[in-house]
Amino acid sequence: MLTPKQQELLSFIQTRLDEGGVSPSFEEMKDALDLRSKSGIHRLINALEERGFIRRLPNRARALEVLKLPDAMHRAPTPIVPPKPKLVTPPPLLPIAANDVIEIPMHGRIAAGVPIEAMEGQAMLSVPAALLGAGDHYALEVSGDSMMEAGILDGDFALIQRTDVAREGQIVVALIDEAEATLKYFRRDGGRVRLDPANSAYEPQIYDSRQVRIQGKLAGLLRRYN
Question: In terms of CB atoms within 10 Å, which end of the chain has fewer, N or C?
Fold first, then answer.
C-alpha cells in the first residue's frame, strides 16, 4: 500500500511519460508535490523502487520506468496538473573581444559544493572560439565556492567538453546516482571514485565507481562581472 505522496508522485511520473515519453526532472517532481527540497523526492523514488512500482533505467539521466500501478489508480486515477514551466532568463552575455564567436547551449546551474541536479535549458551562451577545442561543448553556471582555489567562482560559466571518460586530476562534471551532478577534480581510489573540491573547507566525496558517470570535462571558463 502506498502513502498519498507516493501515489501522487507515481501518478505524476506516469502522466509525464504518457504525454511525452520522458520522465520529469527531480525539480519538476518537487514543484508538482509542493515539497521544499529534492531530498524528499529521493526518498519517495527509493520507496517506489523498493516496492516494485518503478525502476531506474541504467546509464541514462532522468530515466524512470513505471512497472505497475496500484489498483486504486487503475480504478480512479488522480489527475495531476504538471507545474507551469518556469521562464528561464538567459544570463547577460560577457563582452567578447575576439571576432570568431560561437554559441553553445546553457544547461543550467551546477554545484561546485553540495551536488545539485544539472538542469537542461534553452538559453545559448556566446563564447570566443579560441577558448574551445575540438568536440561538442555546453556551458554550466557555477553555484558554490568549493572550487574557488582552482579559480572557479560562484557565478562563473564553466565551458564543458562532452565526454564520458576522464583522466586522473581533471576537473569534470560527474553525475552521481543518475540524479545529481557536481563539478570536481576526478580521482580514482581503488575501486572507488573520489571527487575532490578545491577548497580546504570541504571534504572529498567518495563513491562506488558504479555510482558515478562522467558527463564532460572542463574546457574553459568565463567570468561574469556584475
Answer: C
